[in-house]
Design a protein that fits this description.
- By secondary structure, this protein is an alpha+beta fold.
- It folds into two domains: 3-92, no CATH class; 151-237, no CATH class.
- The chain is 56% helix and 21% strand.
- It is built from five helices and eight strands.
- It has helices spanning 3-11, 56-61, 69-167, 202-213, 230-237, and strands at residues 21-27, 30-35, 42-47, 52-53, 174-183, 186-195, 218-220, 225-229.
- Strands 1-2-3-4 form a four-stranded antiparallel β-sheet, with helices on one face.
- A hairpin with a 4-residue loop joins strand 7 (218-220) and strand 8 (225-229).
- The protein starts with a helix and ends with a helix.
- The mean pLDDT is 79.
Amino acid sequence: MSDMADRISTVLPGDKPLEGMTISHLGGAEYKVLSIRNGPPRVHSVDLGGPSCTCEDAEYNRDGAEVCAHVCKAMLVHDSYLDVESNMASVLMNMTATVDDHVQKAANAAEAAETALVQARDVQAGSAAEATDGGSESPASGSTSGQTETNDTDQALSTTEAWVDSQFTKPDLVEIEANERTVQGRSVMCVELDCDYDPQDAAHETWQGIMSSKDKVMWDGDSYVNYVPVPEVTEVFG
């Protein structure tokens, strides 16, 4: 018998004062005690907070600190119920802590996923912007190429004009301009020279002699003009 039972046996009469009773814990300090002692079965409510009991013994035969057998039975098992409740509370606290930990980890994972998604979108947007910038470079390159070609043509015209001025006494009768012509099956920018010298003028004969002596100067018999591809002008007239 436990220490509590030993102490109770000195208070209650009989050899086995706590037998014949079945106890049910309601919660906290409250119990129901089924007693099959001293007559038909009866159920008594016990509250260890008082302590108190609904039996006649507690009502009529106990004074002051004295307690009935039902209260004693509840007191005997109360510590074990407190241990169970304490253990359950500890288990629940641990479970709550575990759940909170999982919730926090899930929140952290969701935040990390959101951050990764934002970074991926930023990278994708940056790549798209680079692709757009790269695509816009082609017109710029084409523009640069066109500008270079224009500069070459202007230089070729200046070179031709300077040569005509230095070679002929009437350079104002030579019309110089740039036009596209087909040379060896492809379109090429050329400098055209249209001489308005009078065929009877000695200068006209001189002009024809000079033009025919230059291998890269071509003649268009339909329009009566000489022409030189722009890339060849420097070599011919430079």
